[in-house]
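Q: Here's a chain of 363 amino acids. Please give me its 3D structure as tokens.
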Amino acid sequence: MPNGIASRIVALCLASAMAATAPAQACTNIMLTAADGTPVYARTMEYALEVKPDVVVIPRHFDYVGVRPANMQGIKWTSRYAVVGVMSFGEPYVADGMNEKGLAGGALYFPGFAGYAPTQGADPQKSLAPWEFLTWALTNFATVEEVKAALDKVAIIDLQTPIVNFTLPFHFAIHDATGASIVIEPIDGKLKVYDNPLGVLTNSPTFDWHLNNVRNYVKLSPVDAAPLKIAGQTFAQFGEGSGLLGVPGDPTPPSRFIRALGYVASAKPVADGPQTVRLAEHLMNNFDIPVGFIRADAKGDGLEYTQWTTIADLRARKYYIKSYQDEVLRSIDLTSFDLDAKTLYLAPFKANPTPPALQFSHP
């Protein structure tokens, strides 16, 4: 069973205080496929305050009890599948993760558009808080199709986090080992599901809006533009990349969606999962937001930045993470753990700003 109610409330108060003052609006999600068919998922996580993440392995048969106002008992479930992922504030609810069957996904910020079901009158045994939904999905299901089939049995309720009157607005990207992807968005109290063959997701607006926005960029191409001839004069491009003139470079969600889609669509597939993990790492580097580039106001408050990036090889069940203060990609092989363990496995992800030394030897 998760930690006690008191510790959980403390954690959620911290999370909601963070969200209320410095929302994470710059998460970017992609999916790549290797030449051998291996799907590899990657995403960034942005916050303006340090969330001190832990990498957690949640075993099978781990008991959950959902949090509700006034310590009321909420939904109960027991994990069917083990999960590796990233959690914050010491609570076993992941913001991103992958399970032992290769189902993976993340919660991405969705401000201004998330519309949860009302808490009043909701069935407590079918109602999930926004921060519980992803963990519920990853611990219970093996494929995207299983998740889709189960969505009419639950609701995400408009549950404000304790003390701070704020509801965390999320939508969710889910992928599986077959390469299937969906986007789940809470709209007007219902869970709207989109198939997502593009494998790309950012933040607001809604996913269908982002798909319509792609129509503004249909002439972009990774192939260089041909020289232009006017009145007997030939005008050639200055250098490589002229076919991509017009790709938006700002960090807003619509611009990042187009840029991410451009990288995914044009990336040359590599042979297998391990090589695709490295390809994903290179692509995700383009979405790093350094401290100071985004500011909530002129005073410099709300300096949102990329705190961590995760990558998951959905066939090998290997999960990778790197952070702002430690750019070395670390690996977690989910298959190497005792997945029937009685307690969580935890690895605090500590900052290590000193690059490891390069090792030399005599030839």
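Q: Can you summarize the key feature?
A: The two ends are 56 Å apart (CA to CA).
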